[in-house]
């Protein structure tokens, strides 16, 4: 069994792909956004980064536990920086846990379409997800390192 880490920009299709893999591999999907939204809703504000960091630390440990029981794990939270990917490699290498990164790259026009589609679903109350305004889109665009 292994850990699959889904990597890509905001709205690149990571969660959709992660759910597809979960079904195909009969694996456990661990999502940072899913947990932070369940615990804080959309109201985390300035505390978000700290909450997300603690959630990810918990999910790393939980992933190691699940894989040790012979079940595959999919981690869905972007791994936007080289540093975050290096940490993941060190974490799993140090425990002898096999892993693979899957990088989802989409053209800019598809990226914009997906942001618009997600925002429409958020406004309609169809999904509990973060609304991506221009400021947030620029912030996260600048955070992602190929």
Question: What distinguishing features does this structure have?
Answer:
globular; four-stranded parallel beta sheet; 6 helices; single chain; 146 residues; alpha/beta
Describe this protein's structure.
This protein is an alpha/beta fold. Helix content is 55%, strand content 15%. The protein has six helices and four strands. It has a four-stranded parallel sheet, with helices on both faces. The two termini are 26 Å apart. The model has no long low-confidence stretch (mean pLDDT 91).
Summed up, what is this model?
The chain is an alpha/beta fold and 146 residues long. The chain is built from 6 helices and 4 strands; from the N terminus they run E-H-E-H-H-E-H-E-H-H. The protein has helices at residues 14-25, 32-40, 48-68, 82-94, 108-123, 134-143; strands at 3-8, 28-31, 73-78, 99-104.
